[in-house]
UniProtKB/TrEMBL annotation, chain A:
Protein name from the UniProt record: Transport system permease protein
TM helices/strands, residue ranges: 62-81, 93-112, 118-137, 149-168, 194-215, 235-261, 306-322
Family annotation (PANTHER family): FE(3+) DICITRATE TRANSPORT SYSTEM PERMEASE PROTEIN FECC-RELATED (PTHR30472:SF1), FERRIC ENTEROBACTIN TRANSPORT SYSTEM PERMEASE PROTEIN (PTHR30472)
Alphabetical keyword list: Cell membrane, Membrane, Transmembrane, Transmembrane helix, Transport
Top-level division of the source organism's lineage: Bacteria
Any one GO cellular component localisation term in the record: plasma membrane
Pfam family, one: FecCD
Coiled coil: none
UniProtKB/TrEMBL annotation, chain B:
GO annotation (BP), single: iron coordination entity transport
Domain of life: Bacteria
InterPro entries, A to Z: ABC_transptr_periplasmic_BD, Bact_iron-sidero_bind, Vit_B12_bind_prot
Protein name from the UniProt record: Periplasmic binding protein
Any GO CC annotation of this UniProt entry: outer membrane-bounded periplasmic space
Family: Belongs to the bacterial solute-binding protein 8 family.
Pfam families referenced in this protein's UniProt entry, alphabetically: Peripla_BP_2
Length: 330, 309
């Protein structure tokens, strides 16, 4: 159990880091923005180009990064808690791939559909992807290995379907940039779209935090203690679908945040999900925002999809995790 | 009874196989009469002199062959009317899948004596293509104007039509020189060629096919020092680099309408001055031949200098 003073110290540190990365996200990029000048202009109402870039592009981009990062991290933490499996995450569970597939399908069948409606397809796809993996992996007891294998298989299957659709439809080769995960072209429209769903998802997740602790004791104990396991699982699944689905709908499949962040956070605060979930939300936001700043400088002055940056950071971490796991088993 | 019939059928099968093999062998012999070496992006290939059955996997190669008076037997295309749009006439050929995903079986069934693939799309399947028949890999997609010209020259060398190639290039230079006279040398306007897709904007920078071509005529590109000939850019970057003229090679409304609602959109000089033009997408982003280059130049000049032309 984490001590209160340590928790407070951690929170302060996180908030400082988020502040720093927000500052960089707002003021760094191809346009140089001077904070003081921007504030002065903003209060006088006479906005220059630079200040407009700040208020109409950088600010929504920052908000989006913080919220979507939180969504992905919390979705990952929920999945890892409910499945008691360290490898669970929206990506490994086929949730991201399912959502991507259905968004592409929707674009293909109903080209005139706006982003606001794509969200529902993303939710549905996220659900299908997750259900597929869960049902195959839980036949005769779920193990980490089985989950990883089934998850990867379903992920690859769904991704290959998506790629097939793109290959045979010249018109939607369009979406390749979105597919690799990006928040660079987002504005307030996207923010308005994701905020309600994200709030519902996050509140649902946080309200489950206390019950999640029971999963750590094992399913039998949980049932013995009178917990309604199925109900908690269902609610957690709904939260994951909302959080991951809405993220994919606006930003594409940004991988690795859902996998990495909960691990780091459990290292820091222990296994109590009343702390793990909110701290994961903060760390997820911090990570995505920082990755988004990095994405602007990899090929400066041109931008790279942020999904590539998170994968760049995440892949070595995944390997490290896998190595530690096999050591533990042996 | 049954066994006898089976044996008979089997014998027939073996015989027909042998005959087929013999035929194939003959076909091989015919094509291996005389060859010359052609150096290309993926190595050096011995190409038969004056190949007759050519498969072209990019539109600009089809255009090049057409300029040299050769009709390919197989072409990769996405839409039924791609080739007729490209050449402005109907030719008969076999579709060999899409440019992104050519069908090797169909290519093989055509028994070509030369396959021309694109460096960007087909370098990965070069070995497989080479196993079918002699293959050369040249630059077209995401390549510069000069690289596309070089590909035209390589094709002419491969098919042994260098005289015709030189004549055509002379004509091309002449046409560009005529076009250049219509460009005002004091014109400071910088252009951007943008492909506005549903989720992103791709700009053709100063080293892209159309970008470099227009630069050659003295029409400057606003998107400079790019890592690749084409780059994905954001609204913030357009505002920063502020083009005076925007050519929209594609105008998907999804992202574009969102940008148009942003007050920054109206801060772009091209938008302020009303110099945002939609241009022919196939011509500006897909064809990339000599003919396409000349048409792009014409379209650009008509839009930039409506009174003069």
């Amino acid at each position: 159990m984490i001590r209160k003073t340590r928790l407070i110290r951690l929170l302060v540190l996180l908030i400082v880091l988020i502040g720093l990365s927000s500052y960089l996200s707002l003021f760094l990029g191809v346009t140089t923005i001077r904070p003081l000048e921007a504030i002065r202009e903003w209060s006088s109402g006479d906005l220059s180009k630079e200040t407009l870039v700040l208020t109409t592009l950088r600010l929504p981009r920052l908000v989006l990064g913080l919220i979507l990062g939180a969504n992905l991290a919390v979705a990952g933490a929920l999945m890892q808690a409910v499945t008691r499996n360290p490898l669970a995450s929206p990506q490994v569970f086929g949730v991201n791939a399912g959502a991507s597939l259905f968004v592409i399908l929707a674009l293909l069948l109903f080209p005139a559909l706006g982003t606001a409606n794509l969200v529902y397809f993303a939710f549905f796809g996220a659900m299908i992807g997750g259900l597929l993996v869960f049902s195959f992996a839980s036949v005769r007891g779920m193990t980490s290995l089985k989950l990883a294998l089934v998850g990867m298989a379903i992920h690859l299957l769904l991704t290959s379907l998506t790629k097939g659709l793109i290959l045979f439809n010249d018109r939607i080769t369009n979406v390749l940039y979105w597919l690799s995960g990006s928040i660079s072209d987002s504005g307030w429209l996207e923010v308005r779209l994701i905020v309600p769903w994200s709030i519902i998802g996050l509140i649902l997740a946080f309200s489950l935090a206390k019950s999640l602790a029971i999963f750590q004791l094992g399913q039998d104990v949980a049932v013995g203690l009178g917990q309604n396991i199925t109900r908690i699982r269902m609610l957690a699944a709904v939260a994951v679908v909302l959080l991951a689905g809405v993220t994919v709908a606006v930003a594409g499949a940004i991988g690795f945040i859902g996998l990495m962040v909960p691990h780091i956070v459990r290292r820091l605060v222990g296994e109590d999900y009343r702390y793990v979930l909110p701290v994961s939300a903060l760390c997820g936001g911090l990570l995505l925002t920082s990755a988004d700043v990095l994405a602007r400088f990899i090929a400066y002055p041109y931008e790279s999809p942020v999904g590539i940056v998170t994968a760049l950071l995440g892949a070595p971490f995944f390997l490290y995790l896998a190595k530690r796991q096999t050591k533990g088993v042996a | 009874m049954l066994r006898k019939r089976m044996t008979g059928a089997f014998a027939l099968l073996v015989m027909s196989c042998l005959m087929l093999a013999a035929c194939a062998g003959q076909a091989k012999e015919e094509t291996t009469k005389k060859t010359h070496a052609v150096t290309h992006e993926a190595g050096t290939t011995n190409v038969p002199d004056h190949p007759k059955r050519i498969v072209a996997l990019e539109f600009s190669f089809v255009d090049a062959l057409d300029e040299l008076g050769i009709e390919p037997v197989g072409i990769a295309q996405e839409n039924k009317d791609d080739v007729s749009g490209l050449l402005d006439k109907k030719i008969s050929f076999t579709e060999v899948g899409t440019r992104q995903q050519p069908n090797l079986e169909v290519i093989s069934s055509l028994k070509p004596d030369l396959i021309i693939g694109d460096f960007n799309r087909h370098k990965g399947i070069y070995k497989q293509l080479q196993q079918i028949e002699p293959t050369i890999i040249l630059k077209s997609r995401n390549a510069t104007y000069q690289e596309n010209l070089a590909s035209f020259k390589s094709i002419a060398e491969a098919v042994g039509q260098t005289d015709q190639m030189e004549q055509r290039l002379k004509l091309h230079d002449k046409r560009l020189a005529v076009a250049k006279q219509k460009v005002d040398p004091d014109d400071q306007r910088k252009i951007m060629v943008g492909v506005f897709r549903s989720d992103s904007l791709t700009a053709h920078g100063e080293t892209s096919f159309d970008g470099e071509l227009l630069e050659k005529l003295g029409i400057d590109n606003a998107i400079t020092k790019t890592v690749e000939p084409t780059v994905t850019i954001t609204l913030e970057q357009i505002v920063k680099w502020d083009p005076d003229v925007i050519f929209m090679a594609e105008a998907d409304p999804k992202l574009l309408n969102e940008w148009k609602k942003n007050p920054l959109w109206n801060q772009i000089t091209a938008v302020k001055k009303g110099e945002v033009y939609e241009v022919n997408r196939d011509l500006w982003t897909r064809y990339r031949g000599l003919d396409a280059a000349e048409q792009i130049v014409d379209e650009a000049i008509q839009l930039l200098y409506p009174k003069k032309s």
